[in-house]
Amino acid sequence: MSLARRGLLVGRFQPFHKGHLHVIQDILARVEEIIVAIGSAQCSHSIDDPFTAGERIEMIRRTLASEQIDASKYLLIPVTDVNDNRLWVSHVVTLIPHFDVVFSNKPLVKILFSEAGHEVQPIRFYHRELYSATDIRQKIIDGVEEWKGLVPKEVAEFIISIKGDERLRAVAATDVVN
């Protein structure tokens, strides 16, 4: 069986965690090269999207380098939202190089890419119940140190170095005085 030439994975990676790393490693065993599209690239400094596209790219790049994944095997490309499902796939396609297969389990992503004529294959999740960016962000907000064990070491170090943990707690704070 020959590998597909290039796969596409779209995600927000807010933050990049060990489950994401496992997915990329699994996809790279199935394709020659992967495009990692950093979705919602225009978003940052909010509870759902605390990190900039550049910060997310840096998290992923540092982790993949630490895992000794050849940089010629992946492309990290920011993709902004268009907020119109009818246009989303064509928007993504204009921003990235050609790809042969899309990897996703999200029903909407699968439908949109399939309807546009693209092959879609499922992602093999890795301990999905443990690795959830939403839960990791909440642990950071709550000051639960356990979050550092849910992300690659390089990601935890990077988030702390940019004071991303403090940023997330600040954007989660309310202006209500007790």
Secondary structure category: alpha/beta
Rg, please?
17 Å
- What is the average per-residue confidence, as pLDDT, rounded to a whole number? 94
CA-CA gap between termini: 64 Å
Q: Any idea what the shape is? A: globular
Q: Low-confidence parts lasting 5 or more residues at pLDDT below 50?
A: none
Task: State the CATH class.
Answer: Alpha Beta
Number of strands: 5
Report the β-strand fraction as a percent range: 15-25%
Number of domains: 1
Secondary-structure element series:
EHEHEHEHEHHH
The CATH superfamily is identified as: HUPs
What is the correct CATH architecture? 3-Layer(aba) Sandwich
Overall helicity: 40-55%
* Tally of helical runs: 7
- CATH topology heading: Rossmann fold
As laid out across the biggest beta sheet, the strand order is 3-2-1-4-5
Q: Profile the largest sheet.
A: 5 strands, parallel
Task: Tell me about this structure.
- The protein has helices at residues 18-28, 53-66, 85-95, 107-115, 133-142, 153-161, 164-172, and strands at 4-11, 31-38, 74-78, 101-103, 119-121.
- It has one domain (4-172): Rossmann fold (3-Layer(aba) Sandwich).
- The relative contact order is 0.20.
- With 178 residues, it is of the alpha/beta class.
- It starts with a strand and ends in a 6-residue tail after the last helix.
- It has a 5-stranded parallel sheet, sandwiched between helices.
